[in-house]
Amino acid sequence: MRRLSRNASGRKSGDRDKSQRKPPGTPVERRDQVQSLVRALTLLNSLAEADDGLSLTEVAQQVGLTTSTAHRLLTTLEQERYAHFNSERRLWSVGVGAFVAGNGFLKTRNLVGSARPHLRALMEESEETVNLAVEDQYAAVYLLQVECRQMMRAFARPGGRVPLHCSAVGKALLMAMPAADLSRFLCKRDLQRVTAKTIHAPTELRADLVQARERGYAIDDEEHAIGLRCIAAPVFNENGESIAAISLSGPMARISDARIPVLGDLVRRKADAISAQLGGLLPDWHPSLRPGTGHRRHGKAIAT
Predict the structure, then answer these.
(1) What are 229-279's pLDDT values in tens digits?
(2) Is the CATH code 3.40.50.720 the one for domain 110-303?
(3) 127 phi/psi in degrees, rounded to 5
(4) Which CATH fold topology does 13-98 show?
């Protein structure tokens, strides 16, 4: 039988132990809960980047967790439908709950709903695949794609990420950045070479973005994928800030040097139309505001 001794104050040592127990919700417990949340979100992001799903071992290795910890978190995510386990293939993937939650982001701005008819019209007029993307942590994330009817066409799945410096949508977002933000990006980011034609020197990329501003659209000339050309233009909000970019993509055989100015003007006009529908303002530098273009600022919207 265990004996309890008394301390100098007359309180039993067992009482002391009981009094020192931390009640639920203490800072230590909250830190543990936050750590679990961060780990779960990291797992979810890892699953989102995998096209065909990941095994338990693969996902644990990617996020640097033990398989037991990864399995516990994945099981919890599965219970809430944020993760899905294919028992036949023994692979984990993103669940429908994550899609529903992510769809809430699109509802807050209705960007996709506003852009969809303009993207479909752009696809019909250009006969090329078109995309809508936004910036997230110095990468362009695709929200929507309207595929063309050509046998050979580009493909970018919603949620897919591409670097800003070597993609047309990325460069369209960069060209519309405030000068201070662009300088910060050029100084701190590693402009990795993806193809032999990738612009990876900050001074050269800045010069390319200046030309893009002059035109009103950015060009990816085999900088992200060999044989593929893309043209993109930014979409603006009511403060003249870029919130998205639209692009069209196709093989060089169809997007020739002679066709680029025609397609570039088409992409820019569709981007302006989306901005107008959202109540956006074109920034002062935008080529559509130059005299003789037929465009002007009108109250809180863009007159097109």
Answers:
(1) 999 999 998 889 999 999 999 999 899 999 999 999 999 999 999 999 888
(2) no
(3) 60, 30
(4) Arc Repressor Mutant, subunit A (1.10.10)
